[in-house]
Amino acid sequence: ERNARSFNFGAYHTLDTIYSWMDTLVAAHPNLVSKVQIGTSYENRPMYALKFSTGGNKRPAIWIDAGIHAREWVSTASAVWMADKMATDYGVDPSVTSLLGQMDVYLSIVTNPDGYVYTHTSDRMWRKTRSVNTGSVCRGVDPNRNWDAGFGGPGASKNPCSDSYHGPHAHSEIEVKNVVDLVQSHGNFKAFISVHAYSQLLMYPYGYSCTSVPHQAELDSVGRSAVQALSSLYGTSYKVGSICKIIYQASGGSIDWSYDIGIKYSFAFELRDTGRYGFLLPANQIIPTASETWLGLKHIMEYVRDHPY
Amino acid sequence: HKLFIGDQVLRINAESEEHIQLLKELEDDEGWELDFWTHPASTDLPVDIHVPFASLHAVKNFLQAHKIPFHVMINNLQELLDEEQEGVELNAMQ
Lengths: 309, 94
Hints:
The complex is a heterodimer of chains A (about 300) and B (about 90). Chain A is α/β, with parallel strands linked by helices and about 300 residues long. Chain A is built from nine helices and eight strands. In chain A, helix 2 packs across helix 9, helix 3 packs across helix 9 and helix 6 packs antiparallel against helix 9.
């Protein structure tokens, strides 16, 4: 695993292996990729974002996170593949070269490390963080109901035993707070993209409200073009729309928070499933999933690059 | 490791708003320990529910009684998990 070329991208890996692989990626591309520790998790594991940058200070940036829901393994596995793709395509693919010539990309591959480890060691179906809930025997908060965006509203549970428990207060989860602090202290993020699995959706805000965001038409158009690019590879069919309108009302979500603090290009992917496996997508589908997602993601990033604001 | 022997994942294709409402009632019922992988929202999107073995009979009866169409998406969750775990271990060894 110390050799980036021998790493099997078509397999699911433990947290230690992924973290170790990040070092090999950084070592292979020292002038492009660095590993930024954005904080530690509830159980004191380091949280990292890979920073893709060709220089400059606080350039306009794109945030991408995967694996905030622990059991969504294909999200994390796809992010590993896409990190490698972005690094190896720099200087080869004119689009990636141009993007990274103008913007930085921060990619958090395992945004819920405690939960991810727990899915490997104890409960493959675990979704939440692993924080202790005072007064309850149940642990964990849904980190995608914990953001300061309609916090505690419809579509989030106040029951600590629920898989969609919103937590005691907004940003109570250190994993969420670490991302919030990075994004706010940086101050120049132009896009915020969360990668989830599964059900083949590309969504934009809002989830906490069913009213349309001011940039609805533009976000819808960008989303549809991105999905067209994604589908061009294998014909995978995606739906595009606001979280509330294409799934259900859900408050406290990450992309609602990012949009409300002024990051216009806020999107969430729900990656591929064949309709047979749900969260247990077989490892042989990781690379096809990542490959098609990369096309959609790249389209959004190109659009962000070409439409500064 | 938590085991999921005999647990199934059912894929439900709701055909009406009434079906959606019934599935939402099911979601609120904590007694059957159901894990909604996707949630009842509209007839456009399927609803996937991880049903523990102990609740399978009751849930299937509920769906059949209300004529809500479903099929078994994953027949035995643990079998799939075992295959996945085997792959992770094999790869780690390599």
